[in-house]
Amino acid sequence: MRIRGKRKEEECMRFQTKMIVGYTILMFALALFLGIEFSRIEVKTQEEREKNNLQITANQITAQMEERLGRMEASMNYVLSNSMIRDGIMILGKKEKERVDNRLESEARANIKKEINTDFVTSSCYRMIIFNPNGDIFTTYNALSGRVIESIDMETLPYLAEAAKRNGKPVIVSAHEDVWGYQTRPEVYSLVKAVQGYRAGWIETQALTKELSEFQVSQEETDYMLFADDAGVLFSSREELQKEDYQEILAQPGNKVVKDAEHKQLVAKASSKKYGITVLCMESMKDLWDYSYNKFTPFLIALLFFIVSMLFVVALSQILTKPLRQLRTVMTNTKLDNLSSQVLIDTPNDEIEALSVSYQELLERLKKAIVKEKQLVTLSLQAQFDSLQAQVNPHFMYNVLNIISARGIANGDDSIYEMCGSLAAMLRYSTSNLSRMATIAEDVEYLNQYFYLLKVRYEHKLEYSVQIAPEIQGQLIPKVTLQQIVENSINHGFQNSAGKMRVEISGWQEGEYWYVRIHDNGQGFEEDTLRHLEEKMEQTRNKILENKDNMQLEIGGLGLINTYARCLLLYNGDIIFDLRNTADGAEVTIGGYIRPNNGG
């Protein structure tokens, strides 16, 4: 007994250990999930934040670039709007076509040189040059730009032809060496516009490329590139950045931020339709973690959550296992001869107390179940006997009908033979256990046997017709459905009638449903009877839908209610079963949805 008690104690300890291990695994998985999920959310949030910042930076650079180009274009328009400069350009342009007075030519040169060197123009650009095909060159002067060359080969300036096509609109020239410089030739980008007029020439405004590196960006690690639609790369913050690496992104419409998986970057795109420039801002995905100063915080929270949870589980398991050990002892000592003993466990835990009460109730139910078991053995034997007897009865009826049929043939009475044949067919169909369902065509065949027997009884007093559309003859209905409805019509519809009895059965398809209508010219349903049937049908429907297990025990018998119940079960509640009176009798209409697998 001591060894056995020790083993039980070890089993209880194993339960406590299993509970701790189970909760440990659960808490560890939950803490790990929370840590990973928090980290994912943190990275996702940081990524969205950086996307927004990167797009803002791209938009800001685009705006700054538009502002620079706007100042350059404004200085060009300012110069061209000066009448003295404009007239001078026109005079110098036509001197090759017609003779121009030397004084007038000298005056034109002097005016251009004077008017071009205004504070507005010189502060708006690195250098402005006005030149024409005749070799005339005029430029602004300042300490930064210095002298320019005295002549240049126009063929070395490929962008002039494009400017001539623009009809006075400026052309952006990408970063290039300053071809006009005499002593220094820094890298510049330009706006070039063709001056309208005969050999009027061009006006070019330059700006230093290095000034584009002065744009304000949100992070020092952010790289950016500027592109002109017709001129290629205007500026690149690093020489390693190449336009070919971003062709796919440049080809995408609109302003957006995309992940460049190949280069592990976030790339923001912004465009200016006014000048046809595009800005790309790039930031390394690696920097996302560097910016997340609290990237380890989620894991620390998850670890703390895990430690606190484990301390709670260990303490809770100690409290819970004590009353469970007590209950286990009581259950072990329970035998058949002490089922009536009271089970009382002193515990402050309501759940354990409820468990002990439930165990006491279980013992009481077990005691009652033992008594009922003896009764069920007797009932089971009786049910088996009744089942065997039910199988013998139809076989006995077949033999009797065959004997009567044989006697009819021996006496030369064919009607007895035919009646016995019809009755035997009906009995075989209705008592067959192979299937509880039949097609409409099979049930109509059974109904014709029934009508034959009715005609023998009522002779010319009974008239009937059956017209079933071929497309619904394959639909399933419970066996003997049509016969039960016709039988109800014959038995109750003509009790007070001495005239002809007419029964018409018609079937058709309408939409996704089939219908069969049984109409008679009898006296119809009495109002109280019809109302009672409708209430009974509603009660039956509720019982079937709420508790299908007890259906066969509750319904039982035959008749209209039984027929309705069986149809309700077959079609799972989606059944049409309509009872009504007509001007010349009564009719019952049944129907259901078309089942395509039935054939017919």
Automatic annotation (TrEMBL):
Name of the protein described by the UniProt record: HAMP domain-containing protein
Chain coiled-coil ranges: 523-554
Cellular component per GO, a single term: membrane
HAMP domain segment(s): 318-371
Transmembrane intervals: 20-39, 299-321
Annotated compartments: Membrane
Leader peptide range in chain numbering: none
Single Gene Ontology MF annotation: phosphorelay sensor kinase activity
UniProt keywords, alphabetically: Coiled coil, Kinase, Membrane, Phosphoprotein, Transferase, Transmembrane, Transmembrane helix
InterPro entries, A to Z: Bact_2-comp_sensor_kinase, HAMP_dom, HATPase_C_sf, HATPase_dom, Sig_transdc_His_kin_internal
